Amino acid sequence: MNFLTKIRQSLFIEQNVSVLSLTVLFVLIAFFSWYPILPIYLRELGANDFQVGFSYTLLALSYTLMQRAN
């Protein structure tokens, strides 16, 4: 066994990658599952078309800024 294989086995990298991938999958599902429902909710709160569009613009802008900040 070479050195990298020993490190990989000792750190359980394959298992860590699969757990991390599943965690990211669940976070993305939770984040984007309410995305199509947001206009309906905003309409029930009394928002017009401009306000619904503006809320999506702010959502996309904040998401972009947080991606750029890192």
Shape type: elongated
Radius of gyration: 20 Å
Secondary-structure-based class equals mainly alpha
Quickly count the helices.
Answer: 4
How many strand units?
0
Largest sheet: none
* Mean pLDDT metric: 86
Order of helices and strands: HHHH
**Overall number of structural domains:** 2
The low-confidence parts are none
Separation, N- and C-terminal Cα atoms: 37 Å
Fraction of helical residues: over 70%
Quote the beta fraction. Answer: under 5%
Keywords: Membrane, Transmembrane, Transmembrane helix
Protein name: Major facilitator superfamily (MFS) profile domain-containing protein
InterPro entries: MFS_trans_sf
Organism: marine sediment metagenome
For the structure shown, list the relevant keywords.
membrane; 2 domains; elongated; single chain; 4 helices; 70 residues; mainly alpha
Model description:
With 70 residues, the protein is mainly α. The longest helix has 21 residues, at 13-33. It has helices spanning 3-11, 13-33, 38-44, 49-69. The protein folds into two domains: 1-33; 35-70. It contains four helices and no strands. The protein is elongated, with a radius of gyration of 20 Å.
What's the SSE blueprint?
Elements: H1 3-11, H2 13-33, H3 38-44, H4 49-69
Structure, briefly:
The protein has helices at 3-11, 13-33, 38-44, 49-69.
